[in-house]
Amino acid sequence: MNVVAVINQKGGVGKTTTAVNLATALAAIGKKVLVLDLDPQGNSSTGLGIPKERGIKSSYGVILGLVNPQDIAKETYVKNLSVISSTIDLSAAEVELFQQKDRESRLKNAISNMNYDYIFIDCPPGFGLININALNASNKIIIPLQCEFYALEGLTQLFSTIQSVRSSINKGLIVSGIVLTMYDRRNSLSRMIDNDVRSHFGNLVFDTVIPRNVKISEASSFGKPVILYDVKSSGSLAYIELAREFLGRESNDK
User: Fold this and answer.
1) Phi, psi dihedral angles at 196 (to 5 degrees)
2) Are β-strands 174-181 and 140-146 bridged in parallel, bridged antiparallel, or unpaired?
3) Which neighbouring-strand residues pair with 6?
């Protein structure tokens, strides 16, 4: 089972969109996939047409060991794709985790016996215990990076956190890649960010870039991945290509 944390300490960079659409693309080729929503905003859940419900039958209950995750994973209208929803209750988990034994390993222990080819964890912004749990539970990381002026700001801290988790509690954790999002080919700033990121991180950056595309935003408002909302849109084609590249890197890692 591959567990992939989709993470960036900044909000609004495309974490949810990337998690949902990569999961959908892999489900479409027959992989059994779960999206685990760890963001209290619950956007992965709504992005897959799952209504938010308060209570422990969500990722809040999973990370605190109150429920069996297999019992609350909900099938979506996408064949082979399930989701564990998140709600605002998860905001309290940061405080509650401090009182728990093995607080960095609660999620890893909870999902260790689940039966999926891939679990994509949609992480919240920041560097709290929820994200530490996500990194400890994962074997791979995807970092969405918005093509904006402050794109590289904070990445040093993120990689420092990843290295700390790798050296202390999860030695097998690797960064699958950085994916550039909201890329505007007409904008010289996007091209400059692209060049800067690739000069710093080289082959760690996916060749595929995700364009700024109105269909991606529209799809979210309709509770659908863009791959299903408009398969011919530039955003959809980019995520399909990203899925191919991701699988290619998987093969090279074996």
Assistant:
1) -65, -45
2) parallel
3) 122, 142
Do the beta carbons of residue 86 and residue 76 sit within 8 Å? Answer: no
For 212-228, how does the pLDDT look when each residue is reduced to its tens digit (9 = 90+)?
Answer: 989 998 998 888 999 98
Q: Confirm if 21 and 158 have CB atoms less than 8 A apart.
A: no
pLDDT of 209 reads 95
Q: Is 140 left (phi over 0), alpha (psi -120 to 50) or beta?
A: beta
In which element (H, E) is residue 80 found? none
CA distance 22 to 152: 23
The pLDDT value given to residue 26: 97
What is the pairing mode between strands 140-146 and 118-122? unpaired
Query: Could you give phi then psi for residue 151, rounded to 5 degrees?
Result: -55, -45
- Which string of DSSP letters, residue by residue, matches 8-66? -SSSSSSHHHHHHHHHHHHHHTT--EEEEE--TT-HHHHHTTPPP--SSTTHHHHHTTS
What's the average model confidence in pLDDT over 128-143?
A: 95
